[in-house]
Design a protein that fits this description.
Keywords: Hydrolase, Membrane, Transmembrane, Transmembrane helix. It comes from Candidatus Roizmanbacteria bacterium RIFCSPLOWO2_01_FULL_38_11. Helices cover 22% and strands 31% of the residues. It is built from two helices and eight strands. The N and C termini lie far apart (88 Å).
Length: 193
Amino acid sequence: MAQKISAQKKVTLNKLSNFSIVLGSSFCALALVLVVQRYSPLRLSFNINFIPQSVSTSQKIEIRPVRIVISSQKINLPIIDARISKKKWPTSESGVSYIKDSSIPGEKGNSILYGHNWTTLLGNLIYVKPGEKIEVYFSDQSKKTFVVENTATVSPKNITVLLSSKEPLLTIYTCTGFLDSKRFVVTARPLNS
């Protein structure tokens, strides 16, 4: 009888051991997928290879955005220039990326800023509400204030949020959703416009 119980115990322990190995391997595979996905250069991209607008080089040299502040969400980050190349949207681990081919914030057209949804970057962007203020600081020490007009969660295939505007528009976005499969987009207009 003791040998029968011992044999059953071995079978149970063997099954438990196999289950633990499979479960551990599954978690390692999931962790690898998440690490690769987190650092993928395509992670923050929309399904577009260019921004359909441009601003003259002379305007870009005179003034450029250098910092964004959304006090209500404790966001205060440097702005890093970026340019889309071969469908790769450069990202920064220390600030918000600014598409240099988009308009200068506050000028006619759509100014596009984006960044990771990490807690140290734009993680709190999803809590921004219409009516909140966004401040953009520039290289000439000036500041422009924007008011959030709209927030939305969109698919990366929905490029309408990136299109040019006849009026000054500030668009800020980050990833959201399961495995960052969506984009959380904030649009804002200059205060008193």
